[in-house]
């Protein structure tokens, strides 16, 4: 580190994700002890919290953020006994996916619409303020004498698609959120998410690679999938062989396809009514699908899963009409989902990821020795199966333990010891 950073005692890496965010930290005197935050209010043992905020009706202050702002477990199991006018409804809708406003690759019409009183910079600032406060509280519990403005180096991981303008805007939001003492502070660095993940994976498997070997990082998140190919140099340094590439083909696309599937069973207007009036309950419904179906699915032929709407999405029962209501009454409000249905949700997304990997392989002049799958979506057994089948000639295709944490752990390692020889942002 430079002389200007002599006061740095702790490195904090923050992964501001499209759908989920998190952070990790380590003290420079104990660089091997990297701690990942895994406690978010009442949600324990989760490495990330949703990148979501919920404002009071005047949109001047945040009411909730993270999990409490997004997910609402159903309380009315016998929802059919109530008219829709008597059902408790959500207040102000949660704001999510606002990070996408920083991506020029996404058309304006495809970016999430914000309430008139809000602009995306303020939403990013407000979320980073809450996340930053959580970071500072956590650090002070461990090191009471720590000054977060002087003794902490912040490493912010960003998507491969971020250009200099996006990074400058993000830096401005972070400063306005109170993480930095002044806007030109040296206590901040930016690194792309794939590069951070590459550092983490290299730290795990360096004994299995030799100088000259190349490997690819495929960072599969909720919103985006980012890729980079690196070469291992002498002294365990890394060189980027290809430019980082990526696309908006993360796991949230599968969630959208799932809701479209349910909409075909209950009627699109019913889904839209629940989305408008009971958004938290709808997100609970999606989370149940993710944990019970999306991540465990392994390409099992003949697999079938029953979705009990009365149990997991009771509000829908007050909006289903006509023939759909008759059919669901006959089936006791249970929807069957089979392996073909699930593949139809997965395959368009996975096919895009396979194309991105193929393009990266074509761009590199060196033979790829390994592919490392990181990010929350990489836990999908079906995604792993498809990638291994498509690229079976690659000797090593693996998923590190807790792949959701690869980016923040790599960010901490980067802050502790700069080992990437190419440019980074924020210096």
Automatic annotation (TrEMBL):
<keyword id="KW-0547">Nucleotide-binding</keyword>
<dbReference type="InterPro" id="IPR043129">
    <property type="entry name" value="ATPase_NBD"/>
</dbReference>
<dbReference type="GO" id="GO:0005524">
    <property type="term" value="F:ATP binding"/>
</dbReference>
<dbReference type="InterPro" id="IPR013126">
    <property type="entry name" value="Hsp_70_fam"/>
</dbReference>
<dbReference type="Pfam" id="PF00012">
    <property type="entry name" value="HSP70"/>
</dbReference>
<dbReference type="GO" id="GO:0140662">
    <property type="term" value="F:ATP-dependent protein folding chaperone"/>
</dbReference>
<protein>
    <recommendedName>
        <fullName>Actin-like ATPase domain-containing protein</fullName>
    </recommendedName>
</protein>
<keyword id="KW-0067">ATP-binding</keyword>
